[in-house]
Amino acid sequence: MGSRAEALKTRVWTGALLAIMMATAACATDEASSPGDVAAAEVPGAKPEGGGAIAPIGDEADAGVDPDAAVCAEDKVHLRGAFGKAEFTVDVARTPEERAKGLMFVEKMPMRQGMLFVFPSERPLSFWMKNTLIPLDMLYIDQDGIVVDIHENAVPGDLTGIPSSEPAQYVLEINGGMSRLLGLAPGVELAHPEIAQAKWRCR
Fold first, then answer.
1. Which helix (H) or strand (E) holds 182?
2. Can you point out the beta strands (E) in 63-167?
3. pLDDT of amino acid 15
4. What are the average pLDDT values for consecutive 10-residue runs of the chain, which has 203 residues?
5. β pairing state of 136-141 and 126-127
6. Which CATH number is correct for 76-191, 2.60.120.1140, 2.60.40.10, 3.40.50.720, 3.40.50.1820?
7. pTM, full prediction
8. Where are the alpha helices (DSSP H) in 69-128?
9. SS3 of residue 92 by DSSP
10. Structural domain spans, the chain
11. Disulfide check for 98: which of 26, 41, 62, 93 has CB 3.0–4.6 Å away?
């Protein structure tokens, strides 16, 4: 009789202990994750309490990077506008000596090649065609990388000055006729590492 009572008491205590353990586990689960409290990153389009949707990891737009930005390269200049986009391979003329020489004595230039002239600041600019053997289009560009004027088909060897209608800091020289062929016009944006204040920056 005594041993049966002891066994019954042990079973009661064991059952009570299991019940306490299960209740404790349930409380801990409720505290860690109440109903509907799912990690926002795991739910597509889920919104935090602050408002906007959670951006996926690696979303460049959310990181402040223009997804339309061109990739920076010293020998590439990128253009975009109503015509679409274009890219030219360029030599960069930075020093007074490099700018003075320009494209003099060049007998032939590939269709998508040119030269980017870089000046220290925005100013009225004027170019000529001394010792230049091929016709050129001259794109005058302001400090923001915006084309402000285009002179088409400058005549080889002509010593007449070709001024920009607006102050400019950069000049892109390309083969004569390319501007018309591509549909380039004032307002076109350029991206190149040298254009520090460009509205359309490369990355």
1. helix 178-182
2. 76-81, 84-93, 113-123, 126-127, 136-141, 147-154, 162-163
3. 54
4. 51 51 46 38 37 45 67 97 97 98 98 98 98 98 98 98 98 98 98 96 92
5. unpaired
6. 2.60.120.1140
7. 0.69
8. 96-101
9. strand
10. 2-37, 76-191
11. 93
Question: CA–CA separation, 18 vs 20, rounded Å?
Answer: 5
Q: How far is CA 199 from CA 35, 141, 181, 192, in A?
A: 48, 12, 24, 11
Q: Determine the 3-state secondary structure of 168 from DSSP.
A: strand
Residues 6+ apart with CB under 8 A from 171: 116, 117, 125, 127, 138, 139, 140, 141, 164
Encode 112-127 in three state secondary structure. Answer: CEEEEEEEEEEECCEE
Exposed / middle / buried, residue 79 (Cβ in 10 Å: 0-12, 13-18, 19+): buried
pLDDT at 123: 98
Residue 201 CA to residue 203 CA, distance in Å, equals 6
Nearest to 169 by CA among 139, 130, 135, 201: 139
Q: What is the pLDDT of residue 169?
A: 98
Q: Which two tokens stand for residue 121?
A: 């600041």
Nearest in space to 119 (alpha carbons), one of 96, 90, 147: 96
